[in-house]
Amino acid sequence: MAESADAFEMRGIVQRFPGVLANDHVDFAGRVGEVHALLGENGAGKSTLMNVLAGLYHPEAGEILIHGQHVVLRSPQDAIANGIGMIHQHFMLVPNQTVAENTVLGLNRPRFFLNLRKIEEQVQALGEQYGLSVNPRAKIWELSVGEQQRVEVLKMLFRGAKVLIMDEPTAVLTPQEVEGLFVTLRDMTKRGHTIVFISHKLDEVVAIADRVTVLRRGKVTAASVSARGVTKAQLANLMVGREVIFKVDKKKAKPGDVVLEVNRLCCDNDRGLPALREVSFQVQAGEILGLAGVAGNGQRELAEVLTGLRCTTSGTMNFNGTLLNRHTHWLELGQQLAHVPEDRAAVGSVQALSVAENLILKRFNRPPISKGWSINSIAVKQNAVKLVKEYNIATPTVETHVGMLSGGNLQKVILAREISGHPKLMVAVHPTRGLDVGATEAVHKLLVEQRDSGTALLLISEDLDELMSLSDRLVVIYEGRIVGEMPAEGADIRRIGLMMAGTKAES
Ligand SMILES: Nc1ncnc2c1ncn2[C@@H]1O[C@H](COP(=O)(O)OP(=O)(O)O)[C@@H](O)[C@H]1O
Ligand SMILES: [Mg+2]
Prior knowledge:
Number of strands: 22
Radius of gyration: 25 Å
Bound molecules: adenosine-5'-diphosphate, magnesium ion
CATH architecture of the largest domain: 3-Layer(aba) Sandwich
Largest sheet: 6 strands, mixed
Helix content: 25-40%
Distance between the termini: 52 Å
């Protein structure tokens, strides 16, 4: 392969935060016309490294070269002046302004002469050139997440970015949108752009990258290896430092009594429209029932009614001999009914509380945690120290706020809290979404152990591979109705796909 020039080069970057060495003498470079993937588990230091290149952080050691010239990047403006633009995980757009307005937002141009019409034309032209069509006059809030991402890319291209850093860009996209993004990225490399593609997903890296650099705990464990011919297993090994088992190790289920029986359940969504239409199913002790379906077909509402967060309109839920309805004392059910919600940060935990406090949220009112009218702080700490060790939660201390933890470790805090209550039923919603390989594996293992200890599990996920490998039985939901049921072992993935898309499967 012809050696092409480096668009940028970082040497010996050291970036520290209180208690963590996020980048430990990292070297990283991107060539003109390549997609260079930066791969690593959550917390490996990927975003930090790229925030340095984008001028947001100022490292305590190291140097940056752009086209062979030393530069000092004091701000994002400095970075963009050097042709470097970063698209963050959380978009930075103003919702009630238009696409064109957002494109020029923050640019130091004389405002009086701002010709919006002309900018709209330029944005339109750029969009056509790069296959990133969005209406320049649309307001940001009117756009889908995928379209908003295109606006972010256009904004950077408009500012003359030659190096485009994308921080986990696919996390918010549908599979179709991911394909579209990849086409655009390929196109951009042909036009001489350099793409830094941050990800922890092996499939994507193998699909899109020319070269891969792997970070682990702030250090490079594989430097600029060619993505051609590299296997997922090799990459996974470099990421987590040991072989990852992609197959979930589990014995055949030994289902016991019915723990949850849902009968002709109906409920409405937030807009008052039917979300569940006569849904019926059972979950037995010691089995995992997987609920497959495309997002938005009633899964969220089902999880909410099962955990007391939403009212039903008709039908019944029988949990271990107790009818669940608006008269249920949900707090008293407490630990018997575990919930691993979709939104770990807002629903699953209290970000402003410590790890120790989050771990007792479901039993602060019971001994040994409660002591008369007060909380036994020694017991709180002992409980936390024990669970942090048992569940291998990486946190500086048990007093650290959970807002500081990576996604994988936050999920472990939630699982530790829910599992340690010995629940009869666990409702887990997208339990591994956004987690890296190592954390996903840990969560899968915990769920199977939970099953083997006799808990009934309802697993709601969009990841068919996850559902197929974890579940014992599968049901498919479409437009609020259960449209199929089958054993997970040997299930035909194409048939499930058709059911998920609303096509009646003919037997
Ligand atoms: N602004 C910050 N303040 C304190 N710690 C941080 C900050 N940003 C990142 N960290 C810590 O630095 C480490 C690397 O984080 P990050 O670069 O976000 O990892 P990645 O993007 O690979 O998931 C983590 O331990 C994280 O908790
Ligand atoms: Mg990150």
